[in-house]
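Subject: Predicted fold for VWA domain-containing protein, 677 residues

User T.R. writes:
Posting the sequence so we have a shared reference for the thread.
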Amino acid sequence: MDLRTVLLIVLAVTAALTIVFFQYFYKNSRKGSLKIILAALRFVTLFCGLLLLINPKFVSKDYFVEKANLILLVDNSTSMEDASTTSEISQAIAQIKADDDLSERFTIHQYGFGNTITVTDSVNFNQGNTDVSNALSTLNDVFVNGNNAIVLFSDGNQTLGRDYEYINLNKNSTIYPVVVGDTTQYEDISVGLINVNKYAFLRNSFPIETSIRYQGSQPASSTVTISINGNRVHQERVNLNSAKNSQTLNTVVEAQSVGIKTIKIAVGALENERNTVNNSKETAIEVIDEKTNVAIVSDMLHPDIGSLKKSIESNEQRSVALLKPNASQSVLEESDLIILYQPNRNFRSVYEFLKNSGSNYFTITGSKTDWNFLNRVQESFTVSGSRQPEEILPVLNNAFGLFGLGEFSVDGFPPLNGTLGDIQLNKDNETVIFQQLQGVNLDKPLFAILTESNQKEAVLFGENLWRWRAQVYRNDQSFQKFDEFIGNLMVYLGSNRQRNRLELDYELVFDNANMAKIRASYFDESYQFDANADISIKVEGVDNDFSRISPMLLKGSFYEVDLSDLDAGEYNFTVTVQDENLKRSGAFRILDFNPEKQLVSANYKKLGRLAANNKGQLYFLDKLEDLQSDLTSSNELLPVQKSRDNVVSLIDFRILLGLMILSLAAEWFIRKYNGLI
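User M.O. replies:
I've generated the structure tokens; pasting them so everyone works from the same file.
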């Protein structure tokens, strides 16, 4: 108890005595034992109350010795099987734990890691990936206080996570890597990452990008072969050396048939190559046929029609049919998109078809347009007023965002022949191009997209579009920018796909089972995510009798199933929403690919740099005694004597309250009994 508290207690005694003196003895001539008893009770009450306010405490110190933490972190990935044996690593760990000097100086902990880190007392080498950075970062967050020595048993080869070489732990932590495995660097050539799109269109070309990597000191040459479903489509020779140890290959291949195509990239083995597992790699792409049929309906001949046809058919996935307004309904039904060029009264049957079918369409007006008919036959827009013909210059709306405009620009473009009437758009819309008349920008659309309802519409209030295509060629010696603009418009208008209430997200090919996960998103009828759905997945093997139905678990904003226990092979699956008539199916393939087998040599240089960045030193498994000796003699990892202050109240407040209550009650009864109240 400190001096300040003692002084406060003395002051409390003095204050209580002073108050009692003035209440019972000062100018109070009454004598007798009763006054002394009442004064004593009042003193007890006042003194206890003041003690409650002071709350006197005393501090006791406990002294204890805090040992440093010795953390044994063991790489439990399958690559360690080729580097060592479980018995050898277990024996090394047991040797450290049995060292009396180490046990006296350290509190020993043991962890194992692969994909994740766990507390363990065994070595099993059964993890499919190695994430050294995650293991070290986790320990860094767990062991914050005290001195920490991390002994890392690993071959130094990592397959997941950020580069562990650049990790810097807390200043009180030190890393001592123990290299496990063969440190000899063998000549090796391998296939690296493969980049390919998920989908490709039939008859279109798609790119394949891959990297070839080389490890060795001598120049090496090998042949890279690209095959699709077993058929060779490309072959190329690569020359590498110690300075140029990688090369990226970019290949363009034509999609010749519909379906899922397996792409295999293989590089020929070197003469003295030890590891050939990494000389080939597979992926997949799905080829789909989505040819868009466009019908241009016109009752006249005009250069715009030929220009549109050439622009649209510049992509082989689109074809154009030129129709008269009296075309039969069966012919119109074959079209994915209909372009109405300067409609007149003869288009009545075409508009009836559009109304009944809900097909998407693009209207182009001009000098031959029958405005009275057009205003009556449709409700999307109206043009009133004088409708005087006028040459209108275009002004591009740079804020337009329904689809990409690419590099398309209308700067310096010739005017279109349009109408000066009052244009009223009756549906939600976005303007692509505004009108400019005699140098004045008008807040009127020249080209607009109507976005209301499921039926997509576009309208161009002007003819002589062919002049724009010619202007693009005059500027660039190519029609490409104009054709791409029209192509983007066709893609937008030609798509009738509505949002599915059940969406799937998965890869066609998984490199290994550890990566095999399928996600699903389910939406209610108002297209709001439903987190209470009961969704299951049925997985069936193509090459075997495997079949299993599993629930998909909610993971935030999607449902997911983990298929990491499946064997390599091909599988079909169906995702079903229970109590709803909703199903989606698909297929995937799991490759017999083990990233842990891609490297055979221990990366001792990387482990050495990790140790240097974290005040440690590199050791080898056959020199474990050196590690033990350095740990026991380290001046930075000595046990530390610490003290702990225990603050304890001098008097329990419950006792003080009890004394106050008893003294007040006794004083009241005595006064009552003697008629003083």
